[in-house]
Write a structure and sequence with these properties.
The complex is a heterodimer of chains A (426) and B (305). Chain A is α/β, with parallel strands linked by helices and 426 residues long. Chain A is built from 15 helices and ten strands. Chain A starts with 12 loop residues before the first helix and ends with a helix. Chain B has 305 residues and is mainly α. Chain B has a two-stranded antiparallel sheet with strand order 1-2. In chain B, a hairpin with a 6-residue loop joins strand 1 and strand 2. The chains are: A alpha/beta (426), B mainly alpha (305). Chains A and B meet through helix 1, helix 2, helix 4, helix 5 and strand 6 of A and strand 1, helix 3, helix 4 and helix 14 of B.
């Protein structure tokens, strides 16, 4: 399972559409959700006209930053860290360098253990059920309001996290959590296209009118073309193919059209979905693959069958405001018995040296630190110039950036059903 | 003299096991299929009391299972894959089990060990091995090409791309299903064939039956319970399988019903849909199971008579 494999929420919308009720389906689903108690009363409008999601929290967007209410007071400043025993990190498998964790454990006299989850939504379900009780967890901006509303993560005391100053200024107080009340950034990434220059003949970055269209003209790469197995990314890509930049749309017409476009790919290129692009592209098993920016760096660092292959790998980054960008963060779990140490862990992961080591020695996903610039990485020989596009800058996260933000419950169902329709192969 | 309660008591561990690890989880899935969704965390909330059951999700999924709707397409595809795989297992597995049971005298132990050998390696690893075998340059792909099998399969329209078996082809998924499940089919069948009394066959031959007629009228009917047992043993998990198509295909065009269940359980606001599909699939499989039980019961009665 790839570290970045995530599945988010969606609906059965297109199923109903197929059964003949295009206009009826959303209302019937919403009705069903309401009947089942799954739609919050605050959905779609309690936030002064702005739609809200879990717990009535407004949906965060760069244009509409959200301050999350603290459900309890943060821990007091100036306390000593807890020592001894086990410190548990809830995370994707293979998404953090074990050497970095060992060093942290040695520094504070604890045994650091990673409890992995398959994807972050499953992780949240496990946190909610109480089947795991970690100290810190990896989190995503779209799920943060839900875990805050469910009181699954604790408010932070930033006095313990001075290294927050090392991150890009926009991430010191991000739009999804103004004031960094519940999380600090871990990695950033964009979604684009990974490909091999020895197999793909098109000049993807300069394809007109839209490089995303390559998937709909990939007959020559049949069986070697794949998309990410992720609800939001897959449908967002089809929206962008149509030139629609609202990748948080809850308009059934748009989502259903995107799904129909995706279904065309069965015939065009026998489209596959998966999450091993960081491996399959370097190994020549896939030639054209929707991918996250960290994938080709990870592929370059770890999965090259030979050095020459490294020169063939490319990542097309759609660029500022043209493609989805995202970030992961760290939060402290309510179940922690070591809240001070948990704060220090968050601070540790933002240390310039630690974050850089974790990035280039293991993860391939970039931390949003001022010190990490594409030019520096290339000049140091860490990454080849051909993959410079895989490294993001703070500008990529400006006000016009396309983020996959949280959706309303009905919106999540709409997207999930759309994805299920695509995945059904029907 | 043993006390009367002793033998019934020996069933207690099995009953407890069934209660805790089968009936209770089954009821939990049922309660979830008729339950609700937590409005904040979007996780399923089972309705333990049947009086509180909400039939909305179930009727919604039933609508989707109507011919022409998407779940129906996936269900049909799953049935097609399972039936073809089952036929493949029978065609390959029966001769193997028959040979080991009836004709492998000195090599029987060795062959039995070989039959059990696949269990030593995890199913996942065996499936992953196919990726390398069928990759460009892989031994499996080379063999299929060099022997002309790929050309024949392509000519017959069974595969669309003879140079890339991993490009989301139904044939590869079925091949993997047969490969993965066939050991589970052969063993109960072998046990059944091995138990057939040789004197029955001798009597048939003495009465003038040819070897083929003796097989058809004696061996085959007497191995029916083993055949059905093996079939049930592989059919039930095949219907719920989702990782085999994931590993050897990854294409939506080869999605099975298990993949749809996985999709809804894996996250998102509708785990209840995943639970409802699971319950309906279990109901469908129950029909197959009942047929098996009825056949076994009838065969036992005939033997007793």
């Amino acid at each position: 399972m790839h570290p970045k494999e995530r599945r988010l929420a969606t609906t059965r919308r297109d199923f109903l559409l197929r059964s003949g009720g295009a206009a009826v389906s959303l209302s019937s689903i919403s009705g069903l959700l309401a009947a089942c108690g799954s739609t919050t009363p605050a959905d779609n409008g309690a936030g002064g006209g702005w739609p809200t999601g879990a717990g009535g929290i407004p949906l965060a967007r760069p244009s509409h930053p959200v301050t999350l209410e603290r459900w309890e007071a943060p821990i007091a400043s100036g306390m000593k860290p807890e020592t001894g025993g086990t410190f548990t990190i809830f995370n994707y498998p293979e998404y953090i360098d074990t050497a970095v964790l060992k060093a942290f454990g040695k520094k504070y006299g604890v045994t650091v253990k990673v409890t992995p989850f398959d994807d972050i939504t499953t992780g949240v379900t496990k946190l909610a059920s109480g089947t795991v009780s970690p100290d810190v967890t990896e989190m995503t901006p779209d799920l943060l309001p839900r875990v805050v509303a469910g009181k699954l993560v604790k408010p932070l005391n930033l006095d313990y996290i001075p290294n927050l100053k090392n991150v890009w200024s926009g991430f010191r107080s991000p739009y999804y959590d103004v004031g960094s009340r519940y999380g600090v950034p871990y990695t950033v990434y964009s979604t684009g296209i990974a490909y091999r220059t020895d197999r793909v003949k098109e000049d993807i970055p300069n394809l007109k009118p839209n490089p995303w269209d390559i998937f709909w003209h990939a007959q020559a790469y049949k069986g070697k073309t794949a998309l990410l197995s992720e609800v939001r990314e897959t449908i967002a890509m089809a929206l962008l193919h149509r030139g629609i930049k609202d990748i948080n749309t809850e308009d059934p017409k748009r989502v259903n059209q995107a799904v129909k476009d995706l279904q065309e790919l069965y015939k065009v290129c026998s489209i596959k979905v998966g999450d091993l692009q960081y491996q399959t592209v370097p190994e020549d098993k896939a030639w054209l693959n929707q991918a996250w920016s960290g994938d080709m760096l990870a592929g370059y660092l770890y999965y090259l069958p030979n050095k020459e292959t490294g020169k063939l790998l490319r990542f097309w980054n759609p660029g500022y405001g043209n493609g989805p960008i995202g970030s992961d963060l760290w939060s402290i779990c309510s179940t922690t018995k070591k809240p001070v140490l948990a704060h220090l862990f968050l601070n540790y992961m933002l240390d310039n040296g630690v974050a850089y080591k974790n990035f280039v020695d293991f993860n391939g996903y970039q931390p949003p630190l001022d010190e990490i610039q594409p030019e520096t990485l290339i000049s140091k020989g860490v990454i080849p110039e051909s993959l410079a596009d895989s490294v993001l800058t703070e500008r990529d996260f400006g006000g016009k950036a396309l983020v996959e933000g949280p959706l309303t419950t009905a919106g999540q169902s709409l997207w999930q059903d759309g994805y299920a329709t695509f995945q059904s192969g029907a | 003299m043993y006390p009367r309660w002793l033998w019934p008591l020996s069933a207690l561990p099995g009953v407890v096991w069934l209660l805790i690890l089968f009936l209770l989880p089954l009821y939990a899935v049922l309660a979830l299929a008729f339950g609700t969704v937590d409005p904040i965390l979007l996780s399923g909330v089972p309705a333990w009391n049947p009086l509180d059951w909400n039939p909305g999700w179930m009727s919604h999924v039933l609508d989707l299972l109507v011919p022409g709707n998407i779940l129906w397409d996936v269900f049909l595809r799953t049935c097609r894959y399972v039936v073809i795989s089952l036929v493949g297992c029978i065609l390959i597995g029966y001769p193997v089990a028959y040979y080991v049971a009836r004709h492998a005298s000195r090599t029987k132990s060795l062959l039995l060990i070989l039959l059990v050998l696949p269990f030593w390696i995890s199913y996942l690893m065996r499936m992953l091995a196919w990726i390398n075998l069928l990759s460009p340059g892989g031994y499996g792909l080379r063999f299929l090409s060099d022997t002309g099998i790929s050309s024949v399969l392509h000519h017959l329209g069974i595969i669309s791309d003879p140079s890339n078996y991993l490009s989301g082809q139904s044939f590869t998924v079925i091949l993997a299903l047969i490969y993965g499940y066939i050991p589970f089919f052969i063993l109960p069948l072998y046990a059944s064939l091995d138990r057939i009394d040789q004197s029955h066959l001798e009597a048939a031959r003495d009465l003038g039956a040819s070897p083929f007629r003796a097989f058809l009228h004696v061996t085959l009917p007497l191995s029916k319970t083993g055949l059905l047992g093996g079939a049930v043993l592989i059919t039930l998990p095949m219907f719920g399988d989702y990782y085999t198509p994931n590993i050897v295909s990854g294409a939506p065009s080869t999605t099975m019903i298990g993949n749809q269940i996985d999709l809804y359980f894996h996250g998102g606001p509708q785990p209840t849909i995943g639970a409802a599909i699971t319950v309906l699939l279990a109901g469908f499989l129950m029909i197959l199971m009942l047929y098996y039980m009825r056949t076994v019961h009838r065969a036992s009665r005939e033997l007793a008579a």
